Lipase (Glutamicibacter soli), 407 residues
Amino acid sequence: MARKIVDKLEPRKTVPATLIGAGLGVAAGSLVAASVSALAGYFARRVVTPEERRASNAVIREITTDAQGKLWMHLARDAETAEPGGCTFLAEFDACAVRLSAPQDVAGKPKIVARQIEQVYRGTLDGVKRGYLSGAMYEHPSDLGFEAEDVSVSLDVGDGPAWLVPGTSHQDVWVIGVHGRGARRTESIRALPALAKAGVSTLLMSYRNDGLAPTAPDGRYGLGDTEWLDVEAAVHFATSRGARQVILLGWSMGGAISLQMADRSDLADRVDSLMLVGPVINWVDVLSHQARANKIPQSVGRFGQWLLSNEAGRWITGQAAPVNLKRLNWVDRAEELSHPILLMHSRDDQFVPNGPSLKLAALRPDLVSLKTFTLAGHTREPNVDPDGFTQAVSDFLAARINAYTAR
């Protein structure tokens, strides 16, 4: 089931999107146009607004203890709670965080999904009735046995907290983890076993508006059109600490960010290659899909895209500058790619469909390698198939390290 990117956030009180959209529509002389404008403005604004609260869709039915003394969380069954792979349960306002196992059926209770409680990171489940599930299963690299140094990357909006996990056999090869929309640096922790197998160093960064790094002046996502500057700063940090070969690991919107950095930065030549998980290759495709998933008429969705990408829309979206959706479309820009890329994308991703990834791999087989997964939801590839994920990453890194050494 698609996670709704237009769910649970209120527009800024300073410039109500519905009122401005309605004003534009009335100016056009039609009540229908006013409704279309209002909904399009609401949709566009929500796309670029960081989430202050997440929708708590996972409902706890009960917490039970089995014969071995293990705790289990019984959840109301739906597409998300039954999604394969382990996850983290987060209560509202992140007051409680609990790592859960992969789902299991409960005999005689077809409407229930059981997940074992593997670790309580913080808080308590007492009195908690609902929350949301995240694919970021770990809170800190130490949860997987990795030592991490707390470091700061100097972004143009302020210092961005990051974790540095030193490599072993290839300490001067750095992988920079770039998380997705609404996520944090914890998203990349799942990749550490694969990266450790290759012996490389890893920097798990934060960037503007993600709740850890400082907020941008407009408080809006750029969908990669602005955040790439923060990845540029991370690459500068890596090279200042001895990195000779840098590889970007982008998740979802982090893929779009990484692609922009590798294309537009003065440090692009310091980037050897990219590994992208469930990446946004073409925002127009994703936004169109999200509009359909949220039962938004096609005309409204298109107008929302226009608002995001044009100066006039800034008064509704609150952006300092419009998003250049054409520049973020790598299917149309496939010939402009210059870095080797590993795409890892599930055929069952219902949030960022893998169609553009398949197209890009077909258009540029000289640079793009594709590893497809099944059953995994959005960016859940390492949760559902950790062995396949580890193999794909370690094989790609081995090839890139060998290619760099052979220069």
Notes: The longest helix spans residues 386-405. The longest strand covers residues 112-122. DSSP finds eleven helices and 15 strands in the chain. The chain has a mean pLDDT of 92.
